[in-house]
Amino acid sequence: MWTAIGTLPQEEVNTLVEHSVEAGINFIDTANVYSEGLSEQMTGAAIRNLGLKRDDLVIATKVRGKMGSGPNETGLTRKHILQQVDESLKRLQMDYIDLYQIHGFDPLTPLEETLSALDSLVSSGKVRYIGCSNLAAWHIMKALGISERNHLAKFVSLQAYYTIAGRDIEREIVPLLTDQKLGLMVWSPLAGGLLSGKYGRHTSPEDSRRVNFDFPPVNKEKAYDVIDMMQEIALTKEVSVAQIALAWLLHQPVVTTVIIGAKRPEQLEDNLKATGVTLTSDELAKLDRISKLSPEYPGWMLERQGADRKA
């Protein structure tokens, strides 16, 4: 399915990485499962081809997905993690990974086993920090508790889907991240291209990846309302809709960094300009009203009961 996201040759990958580093980006995220290791391989090749200094970069990758047909080639068992970290290092042509993330939840493997394996990687020097991705709030909190109780390396970050058209993590996960002081890395900040400015209630490009890979799931009618509002603001600022969507994320206190997935240099340049877009309090309020989540229990009760203490 990854061909729907990108099929760039190595030379074009080199160009994108070079432009990114020149613009000040030093964080690159990938995963072993992306095109069955090809993404890691091309990332490592680009760094070597460009002669970039390894220690100037923060390289992140992931483990969890199916990497073969055998029963031990998937999941978060100690066996699979220890095998896959070596495979990732080989493909990346590196001797350590800055941030090694579990790519999701494995219901068949105890968290104690997974965290113990990850801790051994930190102790060995193969991994500097560990993180998680696509977990529920209770998964994260349980893992943090296990790590603290057993004196194991703790997750320092979460990689999660978060956009102005998909604010679900604000219900449980954002409060947890704020309370436990975990970083948040946002994946698919333009909702799979839906917030790129190419889409609207009556427009849908035929060459978009969403034609063949309609992901992540989005309430499109609500998203179109948000896009209409972003278009108004974008026109007044003379910027793209994509820049407004990215700028909104950068204005959220819980967001540590935003992972962009540009396939062309012009996309990369447009996305990077979002760092220079400042949204006024009035603009943020308008965007918040049009995109906010509907009240849901126990959130509305917690807010009601906590009002006197906040006052």
State Rg.
20 Å
What is the CATH domain class?
A: Alpha Beta
- Strand/helix succession: HEHEHEHEHEHEHHEHHH
CATH topology: TIM Barrel
Give the beta-strand count: 7
Q: Report low-confidence residues grouped into runs of 5 or more.
A: none
**Number of helical regions:** 11
Oligomer: single chain
Strand content: 5-15%
What distance separates the N and C termini?
A: 51 Å
Strands in their spatial order, largest beta sheet:
1-2-3-4-5-6-7
Task: Give a structural overview.
The chain is of the alpha/beta class. It has helices at residues 10-22, 38-49, 78-92, 111-124, 137-150, 173-180, 220-237, 241-250, 265-272, 281-291, 299-310, and strands at 27-29, 58-63, 97-102, 127-133, 155-161, 183-187, 257-258. 43% of the residues lie in helices and 12% in strands. It has a seven-stranded parallel sheet, covered by helices on one side. The longest helix is centred in the last third of the chain and has 18 residues, at 220-237. It starts with 9 loop residues before the first helix and ends with a helix. The mean pLDDT is 95.
